[in-house]
Amino acid sequence: MTIAVEKVLYTARATANGGRDGKVATDDGKLDVVVVPPAEMGGSGNGTNPEQLFAAGYAACFHSALKVVARKARLDQDVMDGSTVTAEVGIGPINGGSGYGLEVALVVSLPGLDGPVAEDLVAKAHQVCPYSNATRGNIKVDLKVA
């Protein structure tokens, strides 16, 4: 199923040169990084990699979705104090080695909420987060409440 955006509010633009062993920069200059394969994949590891960039974006986006869902549920915003989202992005071979795929684990810490309320909030955030919507049905995404 394809998700159609009704109205584009913002477009991010980044250009890569050299692929996994090169450089990535945004057109506004706010992000300009060297990308290098991790040592676990035969690279030097002396730079960031696409999986780290994806993890950072997903974690930030999901945390914002949690805050939106908490606000809509009329939860006291103090319960979000100290909350964190850690995105763990794994990469590995698929289809007998004919390509590579990703999987994600989102580890959410909501110390101000009890288990069932936290799990409900995480499930609802997973329905509204743009990264979750983009990955749904495409890659494995595990949700964990820490």
TrEMBL record:
InterPro entries: KH_dom-like_a/b (IPR015946), OHR (IPR019953), OsmC/Ohr_fam (IPR003718), OsmC/Ohrsf (IPR036102). It comes from the Bacteria. Pfam families: OsmC. SUPFAM superfamilies: OsmC-like (SSF82784). Gene3D superfamilies: 2.20.25.10, 3.30.300.20. PANTHER family: ORGANIC HYDROPEROXIDE RESISTANCE PROTEIN-LIKE. Belongs to the OsmC/Ohr family. This is Ohr subfamily peroxiredoxin. It comes from Kribbella pratensis. The lineage of its organism: Bacteria, Bacillati, Actinomycetota, Actinomycetes, Propionibacteriales.
